[in-house]
C-alpha cells in the first residue's frame, strides 16, 4: 500500500524529470526499479489475498 502511495505521489515529478529523456543507464535503472517494485508488490498482494480466502466448507449431512 505504501509503495502504491509513493508512486502516486511522485508520478508528477517522475513525468517531469524522467519521461522524455533519452535512454541512459540511469533511466533504465530508474524504470526497472520502479516497475519491478510495483510488479513484485502486486504479485505479493494478489497471492496473499488469494491464499487468505476461506476454503469452501463441506456439509456433513
TrEMBL record:
UniProt superkingdom: Eukaryota
Positions of the DUF6533 domain: 2-37
A Pfam entry, by short name: DUF6533
The protein's name in its UniProt record: DUF6533 domain-containing protein
Amino acid at each position: 500500500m505504501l509503495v502504491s502511495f509513493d508512486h502516486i505521489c511522485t508520478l508528477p515529478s517522475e513525468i517531469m524529470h524522467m519521461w522524455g529523456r533519452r535512454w541512459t543507464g540511469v533511466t533504465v535503472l530508474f524504470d526497472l526499479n520502479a516497475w519491478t517494485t510495483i510488479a513484485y508488490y502486486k504479485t505479493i498482494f494478489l497471492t496473499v489475498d488469494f491464499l487468505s480466502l476461506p476454503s469452501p466448507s463441506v456439509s456433513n449431512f
